[in-house]
Amino acid sequence: MTENTFDVVVIGAGPVGENVADGAVKGGLSVAVVESELVGGECSYWACMPTKALLRDAAALRAVRHLPGANAAVTGELDPAAVLARRDAFAAHWHDDGQVAWLDSAGIELVRGVGRISAPRTVEVTGADRSTTVLTARHAVVVATGSSARIPRVPGLADAAPWTSREAASAQAVPGRLAVIGGGVVGAEMATAYAALGSQVTMIARDGLLPTVESFASDLVAETLKAHGVTLHLRTEPESVRRDEAGTVHVRLVDGTTFDADEVLVATGRTPNTAAVGLEHVGLTPDDWLRVDESLRVLGSDGTPIGDGWLYAAGDVNHRVLLTHQGKYQARALGETLVARSGGEPVDLEPWGRHAATADDRAVPQVIFTDPEIASVGHTAASAAAAGLRVRAVEYDLGAVAGASLHADGYTGRAGMVVDEDRKVLVGFTVVGPDVAELLHAATIAIAAEVPIDRLWHAVPAYPTISEIWLRLLETYGRAA
Ligand SMILES: Cc1cc2nc3c(=O)[nH]c(=O)nc-3n(C[C@H](O)[C@H](O)[C@H](O)COP(=O)(O)OP(=O)(O)OC[C@H]3O[C@@H](n4cnc5c(N)ncnc54)[C@H](O)[C@@H]3O)c2cc1C
Ligand SMILES: NC(=O)c1ccc[n+]([C@@H]2O[C@H](COP(=O)([O-])OP(=O)(O)OC[C@H]3O[C@@H](n4cnc5c(N)ncnc54)[C@H](O)[C@@H]3O)[C@@H](O)[C@H]2O)c1
């Protein structure tokens, strides 16, 4: 047994754990990071990067198809093998040497194995060779263990060797027929990717397609999926799934529909990676999400920080927002919090304060890489109303903007903004259309900076760009007399 003491011990070297460690080390603390699989986490090898690599070639090809001159230069079809090979490179061929080298260069100690809290400020790491290393933290332990795919209890499903997002992201061959259970972000993106790669895709979206985005955006994506040959079963769910000896998967829905597939992808949400973290040693329940306060300290069942506040959780595992960029934003705040607290300095947890992750509640940007892309930040009209805000929402046809019509023949898209009528600031923005991802950050800045609507009129979009949508939305909203 090896024993070591560090200022901070981080369990999980995904994007979030890496960034917490980086911030703490930059502030002069010593940090050990424990990782049981690959340094870089889900995002690098089985989520963000490989899935976007699977989608990118088809998106580029679609863009060319809408420009007659450029289209004339395209003489072949999409090459799935080349797409998969480029994806492999983006997943670093599932080796983490590059990220390990970065940890080394940053002065962060890597301890490989499964980390488990065994006592206050103590993490026991079990290596692949069953060796045990005990790490003691002078100041804090941070849980950044992320999340995994949740498999619903559908009779036969678990025995049918279903794909999760991991297999969908890392597949070495394109199935002839793919069934997708779940109409959320993973389901919609992977249906888009595999339909373009040549699979016959059937989707089951119990709560409708992309139920949390503005319906003008999800409706357009649903139409396009159908145009690409995807069969959509909305507002129903699987009753049973069975894989026969020949390998064919038979799916029966509760509405009586039956169909067959070669693979079945389960994309029905996430479960926290907290089964093996030793939560029982701090009075919490394994498999639960970790509830945190504004400084990301883990809360016990009585709602107060565990112990004297030595345990923190950041990223997917705290269930605030399951997105890499928000987890890394939490990590930056937490790194600074750990440095401040270990030096006896105060932390600023006021809204938008240096150590607060206020954007998690008010300005979360997301791009869904479907055809077309959906980019959104902050509230939808429905979520704003549910949050008790008095809002007015306006929409505009994106295809009618000069820059969009120039961008691609037959450009189809729509945008909407949600304005807080009491404060006269933007609280939500959604745009759907080809190549809209890069439009999003302007809206994120407007919401985070709480730019008054009156001042937004002075932010003039260049002509002829798709950004002119801003002017059209403001005109639709109307200017106060
Ligand atoms: C298919 C898919 C696509 C996605 N695409 C995007 C996208 O485009 N953009 C975006 O922003 N987000 C995307 N996400 C979400 C994103 O992947 C997560 O929000 C992000 O990975 C969370 O980072 P994390 O560091 O909290 O957790 P993870 O990335 O899950 O990392 C946690 C790490 O902890 C390790 N670990 C777990 N338990 C232990 C233990 N006991 N001991 C030691 N190590 C442990 C794991 O091995 C892992 O390396 C996607 C998710 C999926 C499933
Ligand atoms: N581009 C991106 O930013 C991106 C891409 C992929 C994933 N992610 C993140 O990863 C997380 C996980 O994505 P996800 O799609 O797995 O979860 P999700 O919560 O987005 O969607 C899951 C969907 O599954 C459906 N569902 C649940 N149980 C079901 C059942 N028994 N039968 C049929 N349908 C069922 C729900 O209606 C829901 O719409 C998300 O929070 C997302 O933010 C982000």
Automatic annotation (TrEMBL):
This is Dihydrolipoyl dehydrogenase family protein. Residues 364-470 form the Pyridine nucleotide-disulphide oxidoreductase dimerisation domain. GO terms for molecular function: oxidoreductase activity. Keywords: FAD, Flavoprotein, NAD, Oxidoreductase. The keyword Flavoprotein applies. The keyword GTP-binding does not apply. It comes from Promicromonospora alba. It comes from the Bacteria. Its cofactor is FAD. Its EC number is 1.-.-.-.
